[in-house]
Write the C-alpha cells for this entry.
Amino acid sequence: MDRLNDHALDVLFRKARTYSAWLPKPVPDALLSELYEVAKLGPTSANACLARFVFLRSAAAKERLRPALAAGNVAKTMASPVTVIIAYDLKFYDKLRQLFPHNPAMRDNFANNPQLIEQTARRNSTLQGAYLMLAARALGLDCGPMSGFDNARVDEEFFAAGKCEDCGEEFFPVGHVKSNFLCNIGYGDSAKLLPRNPRLDFSEACTLM
Ligand SMILES: Cc1cc2nc3c(=O)[nH]c(=O)nc-3n(C[C@H](O)[C@H](O)[C@H](O)COP(=O)(O)O)c2cc1C
C-alpha cells in the first residue's frame, strides 16, 4: 500500500477539527450514501457490521432529538445540516450467517452470551463511528461528535425502547437498537474555531516494549 501524501494526512488528521459552527451549505442524501459506502468497509469483530446510523436532516427529525440534548449541544446540533445517531443493534448476531458465512458457529457464540454482545456492540459501534468520521473528512465533510445527551431518551424516541414488539417504529426493530454517540456533519465554519488544544506527546501516551 502507498503511504498517503501530506495533503491527505492534513485533511484526515492534522488540519481536521471538531466543528460547532456550520456554513449554510447542504449535504445531499447521495453524499450520505457515499459516506456509508466508504465507512462500512472498516473492520468489525466477526464482520458483524453492528452499527446503525440514523441521519437526521429535517427540522422535524432534529426537533425529536432536541429534548435529549445537553444544553451546550442544542444550538450546534440544530444548526448542522445533518446529525447522525451512531447506534448499535444488540441482535447483530442474527446477521452473522450473511456477514460471516464461513463460520456458522459464530452466531451462537454471541447469542448465548449477553455480556459479550454488549461489549462487542459498544466497542465496534464506537469504531464504526470513528470510521464514519474519517470517511466524512475524506469526502470533504466536517464533523462534530457529541456524547452530551440522554441515551435513554434517544432510544425511547428513535428506537422504540420499552415498547411492544408490534409498535412498528419506522426502520429499527423495537427495543434492541441503542444509541452510542451523536455526530454533527456538514461543512464547518473555520472562522469560528478556537485554537486546537494540545495532545499528549509520544512519550506521555506510548511505550515501546
Ligand atoms: C465521543 C466524543 C464525545 C464528545 N462530546 C462532546 C459534547 O457532548 N459536546 C461538545 O461540545 N463536544 C464534544 N466532543 C468534542 C471534543 O471535545 C473534541 O473533539 C476534542 O476537544 C478535540 O477537538 P479538535 O478535534 O478540534 O482538536 C466530543 C468528542 C468525542 C470524540
Remarks:
- The pocket of flavin mononucleotide is lined by residues 17-18, 70, 72-73, 145-148, 181, 196-197 (CB under 6 Å).
- The mean pLDDT is 94.
- The chain has nine helices and four strands.
- The two ends are 26 Å apart (CA to CA).
